[in-house]
Design goal:
Largest sheet: 8 strands, parallel, barrel
Shape: globular
Structural class: alpha/beta
CATH class: Alpha Beta
Number of domains: 1
Distance between the termini: 43 Å
CATH topology: TIM Barrel
Strand content: 15-25%
Bound molecules: flavin mononucleotide
Helix content: 40-55%
Number of helices: 11
Length: 327
C-alpha cells in the first residue's frame, strides 16, 4: 500500500491534501468533517488584519457617544478583541478536536500593530500561520518594489513574533516573480502558496452592472500555479503548496510531479462536498500503485524544471515553437 505522507513546512501530513482557507473552514463542524474525510491538514478561514486592530474604529465610528461615555468604553474595549478572541477560540477548539495540523490564516495588506498579535496564534496552539496577502497593484503612483517591500516587511514582522512555520499565500501580480519568491523564502517564509484566486469583476451587458465573476474555480485553472511551481520548486528552499483549480486527483498529482509538497482544495469541496477529499486521496493512491510508487518522495518534483530532461519546455523557446512552428 502506498504511503501518502508528506512534509510541508516541517509539518508531518498524512497526505498532501489540505482543506484550503474559506468559509467552509470557519467552523468546527466542517473542519472535523475535513479530517474525517482524510484531509492531511486544514487552513482555517482568514481573519482580516482589520478585525485584529482597526475594527474598533469601524464598530464605534458611526455611533454618537456624546452622552454615553460608558458605552464608548465598553464598545471600544470589547470590540478590539472581539474578532480576535472569536478566532482564537476557533483555533483552540480545532486543536482540541483534531489530530491533523491546524494552520491559522490572516488576510493582510499592511505591516503594523496587528503583527504583534501573531504570537497569540502560536500560544493557542496553531501549528503554522498562513499569511494571505494581497495588495492590488492598481495605484499608479506606487511602484512594484514598494509593494514587494511591503509584503516582505509584513512577513519579517510576523516572523519576529513567532516560531511556528509561516507561509505566504500570494497572487500572480509580480513582475519579478522568481526574485520575489526567493526573497520571501530568504526572509523566513517556509511555505509558498501559489496562487490565491481573488475576486474579479464581470460585466452584465443587459443591466449595465458590475457583477462578480464565478466564485468557484474550474479545473483548467491549475496551469498558472503548475508552471510556477515547476519553475521554482527546484530552486527555492521553501515548500510549495498548490492552490487554485485542483478539483480531482489528476490535478493534485500534476502539482506533486511539479514539486509541490501539498495541494489546497476549496472550490471542489464547496461544489462536491467535503467527502470529495476521500476520492482525491484514493485517486492519488491508485495512481501511485499503478506507477509503482510507494511514497510521495518517489515522484515529487520529478517534472520540475530542475529535474526535467526538457527544461526548455517550461520557457519561451517552447512558446515560440508552438506559436510560429519553429523547430
Ligand atoms: C467562498 C470562498 C472564501 C474564501 N475565503 C478565503 C479566506 O478566508 N482566506 C484565504 O486565504 N482564501 C480564501 N479563499 C480562497 C481559497 O482558499 C482558494 O485559495 C481559492 O478559492 C482557489 O482554490 P480553488 O480553486 O480550490 O477554489 C476563499 C475562496 C472562496 C471560494
Amino acid at each position: 500500500m502506498s504511503d501518502l505522507s508528506t512534509s510541508y513546512m516541517g509539518l508531518k501530513l498524512k497526505n498532501p491534501i489540505i482543506a484550503a482557507s474559506s468559509s467552509l473552514t470557519g467552523n468546527l463542524e466542517n473542519i472535523k468533517k475535513c479530517e474525517d474525510a482524510g484531509a492531511g491538514a486544514v487552513v482555517l478561514k482568514s481573519l482580516f488584519e482589520e478585525q485584529i486592530t482597526s475594527d474598533k474604529n469601524r464598530m464605534v465610528g458611526d455611533m454618537n457617544f456624546d452622552a454615553y461615555t460608558d458605552a464608548y468604553d465598553f464598545f471600544n474595549a470589547s470590540s478590539t478583541d472581539y474578532y480576535l478572541d472569536e478566532y482564537l477560540g476557533l483555533v483552540e477548539d480545532a486543536k482540541e478536536s483534531l489530530s491533523i495540523p491546524v494552520i491559522a490564516s490572516v488576510n493582510c495588506v499592511s505591516p503594523g500593530q496587528w503583527t504583534d498579535y501573531a504570537e497569540r496564534f502560536e500560544n493557542i496552539g496553531a501549528d503554522a500561520l498562513e499569511l494571505n496577502m494581497f495588495i492590488l497593484p492598481s495605484n499608479i503612483s506606487t511602484d512594484g518594489k514598494t509593494i514587494e517591500d511591503t509584503y516582505i516587511k509584513i512577513l519579517e514582522d510576523v516572523k519576529k513574533n513567532i516560531n511556528i512555520p509561516v507561509s505566504i499565500k500570494i497572487g500572480y501580480h509580480f513582475s519579478g516573480m522568481g526574485n520575489f519568491i526567493n526573497r520571501a523564502a530568504s526572509s523566513g517564509a517556509q511555505g509558498i502558496v501559489l496562487f490565491n484566486r481573488f475576486y474579479k469583476i464581470d460585466i452584465d451587458i443587459e443591466h449595465l452592472n458590475i457583477k462578480s465573476s464565478p466564485i468557484i474555480s474550474d479545473p483548467s485553472e491549475i496551469h498558472l500555479a503548475l508552471q510556477w511551481i515547476a519553475l521554482m520548486s527546484g530552486e527555492i528552499s521553501a515548500d510549495f503548496s498548490a492552490a487554485t483549480g485542483v478539483h480531482y486527483a489528476e490535478g493534485a498529482i500534476k502539482h506533486l510531479l511539479a514539486g509541490a509538497s501539498s495541494v489546497q482544495l476549496c472550490s471542489t469541496l464547496l461544489k462536491n462536498g467535503v467527502s470529495h477529499i476521500t476520492e482525491i486521496s484514493s485517486g492519488i493512491e491508485e495512481w501511485m500503485d499503478r506507477k509503482n510508487y510507494t511514497k510521495i518522495a518517489d515522484f515529487k518534483g520529478i517534472l520540475s524544471q530542475e529535474n526535467s530532461k526538457h527544461p526548455e519546455a517550461y520557457e519561451r523557446s517552447q512558446f515560440i515553437k508552438s506559436v510560429v512552428g519553429l523547430s
